[in-house]
Fold each of these.
Amino acid sequence: RYELIAIDKKKDYLLVAMSDPLNFFAIDDIKMLTKSEIQIAISSREAIIKNIDKFYRKESTEKMLKEFKESYEVDSIEGLEEKELLEVATAPIVKLINSIIQQAIDMRSSDIHIEPCDEDIRIRFRIDGDLHEIMRLSITSLSPIITRIKIMGKMNIAEKRIPQDGRVETKINGNEIDIRISTIPTVYGEKVVLRLLDRSNFMFSKDELGFTKNNLETFDEILRQPYGMILVTGPTGSGKTTTLYAVLKELNKDDKNIITIEDPVEYKLRGVNQMQINPKAGLTFATGLRSILRQDPDIIMVGEIRDSETAEIAVRAAITGHLVLSTLHTNDSVSSVIRLVDMGVEPYLVSSAIIGVVSQRLVKELCPDCKIPYEASYSEKSLLGLDTEQKIILYKPKGCNKCNNGYKGRRAVHEILTVDECMRQLIDKGASIDELRNAAEKQGMVSLLRNSVDLAIEGLTTTEEVLRAGYTLN
C-alpha cells in the first residue's frame, strides 16, 4: 500500500525504507501501529517491492498453512473420504494456491512445479527457461493442494494412480490467465505442473519476434507464396506456437478461409476456425486434417506433425493449392527436410511441398541495467568462431533489483531455409544433411549459431546462451 519496509529497530526509533519520504500519511500510520518514532531511509520502489516479496511472501504462505492446519487439526488427510477432501480443498488452502500462482505470475514464470519429497514439498518456478526453488512446504499439505488443483482443472480427485490433465481459465489482476495442469504419480505422491499462459501478453506481431532485418525480409517473401508448406522447428518451449500465431494473425483476411487443428488451442483467434484434437473421440491430427480438406480451406495450420499419416496428408495438401503451416521437433531447419523423408514421405513430394523452414531457439536476454562488459578471451573467441586477433567486448550477467539474476526475459533467435530450385533438386536425389546445409548457406542462410553470436556481440545475451542455442550447429 505505502511501498515501505522496516529495516532496523533501535531502542528509540524504527528505521523504515520508503520510496516516497514525503508520504506523511504513511509515516503517521506506522507511528500509530508501532508506537515508535520513525526514521526514514530513501530507497527505490523496486528494491522495496523485491524485499517485501523476499521476506514476507513466504511468511504469508506459512500463515495460510497454519490456518489450514488449525482448521482441520489433522497430520495427514490421506484417509479422508471424497466428500471430506472437497471440504478441505475449499478451506484456506485456496488462498495458498492463489498466492503461489500470483507469485509465479509476478516473477514472469512459465511453469509451476509442485514436487513431493520424502519430508516436504518443493515448489519451483520456471523463469526464463530455468527452474528456481521458491519455497518448501509441509508434506501434510500435499493432499489438499493436489485436491484443490484437481478441482480447479475439473479432474478426478479420487484417482491418484494414473497421470491426469486439466485446464482452467481465470483472471488475475485483470489479465486472462490460462492454466494447463498435469499430474503424475510418484513414489512420494502426486507431482503437479501448472503451465501458465497470460493471454494478454501472448499475441505478438511477426515484427516483434526478434527476426533480424534479413531474416524478416526472407520470411515475408516466403509468406507471400499462395500455397506450399511452411514449417517452424525447434525444441519444446522454443516459441514455435507463438510464431505460428503471429503468422496467422497477419494472414487472417476476410477473403481467406483459415482452419487450424491444435493440441490444445492456445489462443482464440477471431475469424479463424480452430479445432482441438480429441483422441478419445477419434479426432487426431490426421483425421482432423482429412476433414479440414473438405472445408474449402485456403490456409491450414496443423499444430504438430507427429506421425507419417499426418505428414503425408499435410504434404499433399500443400501441393494441391493450400498454404500449410506446421511444426516439427528438429534441431535445425535443414533437418526438417530429412525428418519428413524419414517419416515415409517421398522426396519428390517433400521437395514440391516445402517452401520454407524457420528454426528457432529462445535465449535469455541480459538485463540492460546491470550487465557487465569484459574482453573476450582467446579460447572464447575461437569457440564462437570470431577473429582471435581482434579485441571483442562481450557481456555477462550480474543481478540487480530489476532482474534479480542478471537476465530479464528471453528473445528468439532464428535461421530460415528457403527451398529454391537448387534445393529441390538436392532433395529429389536424396542429398545428405551436410549437402543440404552447404547449399543453404551458399544460398545465404545464416545459421542459428551465427545469429546467436551476433546477439552476444550486441550485448543482448551471453556466450553460455549462444552455445546452448547453437551447439547443434557448432
Note: Residues 72-77 have pLDDT under 50 and may be disordered.
Amino acid sequence: MKRTTIYLPEDLKSSLARAAYEAGRTEADLIREGVERLLQSRHAEPRLPLFTSGKPDLAENVDGLLAGFGEK
C-alpha cells in the first residue's frame, strides 16, 4: 500500500474517529472502503464523439436526410 495524506474538517474527522471506534476498525480502513465505494459507483462519462457516422456533415443536413420520414 502507498501512504497518502488527506485533510478533513474537524467535524468530519471526529465523525470518522467515532465511526471507526464503534465499528472496531481503523480510520484508514473506513477511508479505503469509502474511496473504493465511490470509485465503483462512478460511471464513466461518454467522450465525444459517441460514434462515427462516416458523414461529417450529418448534423448540418439532418433536415434533408429526414425529409419524408414518417410520412405514408
Note: The two ends are 66 Å apart (CA to CA).
